[in-house]
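Pinned message: reference record for Transcription termination/antitermination protein NusA
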Amino acid sequence: MNKELLNAIEFLSKEKGVSKDIICDSLEAVLITAYKKEPDANPNAVAELNRTTGDYKILAPKTVVAEVEDEESEISLSMAHIMDSSYEEGDVVNVNVTPKNFGRVAAQAAKQVMIQRLREAERNMIYDEFSNRTDDIITGIIQRVEQHNVYVDLGKAEAVLPASEQIPTETYAIGQRIKCYVVEVRKTTKGAQILVSRTHPGLLKRLFELEVPEIYDGVVELKSVAREPGRRSKIAVYSRDANVDSVGACVGPKGARVQNIVTELQNEKIDIVKWDEDPAVYIANALSPASVVSVTVDEAEKTSNVVVPDYQLSLAIGKAGQNARLAAKLTNWKIDIKSESQAAELANEAPAVSEVPETDDLLSELAVPAVAETPAVAEEQAADAEAAKE
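Predicted structure (tokens):
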């Protein structure tokens, strides 16, 4: 029977994916529950299960005394010496109190407790496993679609892809394999509730980490991500090694790396730009594929004025302002874009500087003498005039 018990523990461990120690602890709790249903059960009893042999017994701690007054908590010195001659008064002895008929009836009564504890252990194990995968990518198979929510089978658990986290341009079919970003793992009475997303910017970041070894190794750093899910995205990358081209590493040979990500996101367009510590250069790069003539920045207000060629204005702004909007999200700067002709018109419309009137005219208008004349100066001027006449 003990061998059968060990085999059952082994089977449960493999079937439920729960460690043997957790099952043995649960079984000990079940044995105590079953024992306490017995008449005259000792309330202080504990169960002990030998993990090697499968033997189990119920032990009640009792204090060694000269005369027993309470049989539930005390044992006589003579009885203790039968167990071990080294016991003395005051020692605590674990006495085997396993009932003779302890078996089928008691085990049946405790069966539900065992099932409940195993379920709790399984739920906790699943929660611990997936809570460690928050902010990471998981791959699953779409199991069903109910009330606009997509349920993804992850093997041991089920994830929910709510409507708010779905890409508007995507369609989801039962049996389809998809990659999702783990947003949150909640612990509920029914087990772990896993919330996943297809629109989160982190999904794009993790996909590049999977496809680009340089990002995973830390040689290339992904500085920022801006997404309009299903339509277009921009990422800014920076290389810590001067010999490694950050943009080229992300694009891959013949564009293979970025194309795999585009395919996974069902043809979402991705712009890869080079990050720069100079805000003006960074903003110019972020407006790619448009070329930029000049960028002026106000670091205090985090605003910038960008001038582009006339024929590039629509490209810089993008359809419905998409390119400019993504560039602003990527750089975290407010961007004002103007064409060269618009910038020239604004420069010409600037008010001209008003001419400063002559000093004499200004002073006469104000009725203030230009120089205060002294009597000596007046006499010198009169003498000079007489000499000029002669």
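Pinned by admin. Summary line: Residues 352-385 have pLDDT under 50 and may be disordered.
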